[in-house]
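Structure ticket #2291
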Amino acid sequence: MKDRKVQTDTQTLDRLADAAREGRISRRSFMHYSMAAGIGLSAATGLWGTSAKAQPKRGGTFRIAQHDGNTGDSHDPRLYASNADDLMAHTFRAFLTQINTDGTLGPDVAMEWSANSDASEWSFKLNPKARFHSGGKVTAEDVVASMNFHRGEKSTSTAKALLSDVIEIAADDAHTVTFKMESGNADLPWLMTDYHFVILPRNGDGSANWQSGDGCGPYRLVNWEPGINASFTRFEDWHGEGAYFDAVEVTFINDPNARQTALVTGDADATSLLENKTMAMLMRHPEVDVINLPSAQTVTWPMFCDVAPFDNVDVRNAIKLSVNRQDMIDKISFGAATVGNDFHHSPAMPYWPSDIPQREYDPEKARALLKKAGMENLSVQISTADSLTTGAVDAAILYSEHAKASGIDIKVIREPNDGYWSNVWLKKPWCMVAWAARPTPDVMYSIGYKNDAPWNESHWQNERFNKLLLQAKAELNDTLRAEMYRDMALLARDDGGTVIPYFPNYVYGKRKNVGTTGAYAANTEMDGYRAASRWWFDL
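Resolution: structure written out below.
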């Protein structure tokens, strides 16, 4: 009987904690029922403090120090590539759906969505309260124009591949949009969170108006100097919940030390991409909170598979065998990362193929493969830049040290931060890349590995991989779908042109006077780059 009483009281406390978090119970009632359940006054007070729903407050100017700003950044969502683009898109523009702080899919401009039996047709119901900053209501025609902006043979959009199987996008009425596809796509509502798919106003000719900088997001854009700064004011008619700050100011700072200094001195209220090597020190700072989240963010080193010497699969695998992944995590990420296995599918994604053997550091085997290829004493160049991710240049230098044991001479080229995405990535045959997390493997493989994907950064072509990608996209049986993704992962690991050393945690910071719910979306930095709309000042 005693054990049953303890269990009952524990269940009662769990329900009370849930009620407090959801704001369904007063502090007085919480204390009364907690003490009745058998805990003392001090314990009940502590439980209330950790359980009570955070109460957002409105007001103040939120100052962000943001990395990866470029003078070439643009309002054109077809060209979005940088973290600065991602931040901008989520601050003054909006999407059909969003990823919640618990990793689930939630509404944005669309309130609800549904599919037919084989997921070849999806309908989205729009929020009738959604409005553009210029004053007009967001209609289904605006959504059609926004999505078609990325489609068609002449489209230059980097997100074109995500909509390649869409046959038609139609406005059924003013607030209903239907996507019709060649075959089923179980991930379509997740695809709508991609940061390219912002909702734009429709021009009179049916095209999308991106040039004006109009949006329907939580904040109205006031001023923007690409690569320098941006300022926003709260949009009072925003359809969503949040946007507690009166204004938001962003300063683009690519130097990690300068970003950290801005946070410590209070010149910034929040800072993206903190250096892992100073993480422990910052965690001891009395006015700073460090947020450290495991994620599907990925560091890649793609090799052009159609350019020598990377056109030889033995050379590619020798290079993959020449990185000591755990050493890199210990010395570069200071433990804030998950080991990679040369396929772009992290444990933070669904359908994770956990049974695939981990590729280990093996210089002896790498030497044998190079000898087989007739390329002993290989010399290659790799490009990188400080702004890509924490410790980016140091990671490449460490890799070059690892590779010496394999007889590979890796020359590290330190590229300028500004213009890296336009001048280096997709241009040079071997470089370092930092990918933001994607919600499902289909999204990642469709934009970065599919044969005709605009961001096929390794120029890899594999017919079997492409067939499996199409099959998996339409497969509604999760077990079969997982098997397909496992086969694709093996193909990418053993034939592909991309080295994946690790999946970095998102490590960023805020001042302690910045309030949050305590939960953070792990799809991108800064709470899914929605910090401006989800956080507030504890004034």
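Closing remark: The CA atoms of residues 22 and 55 lie 11 Å apart.
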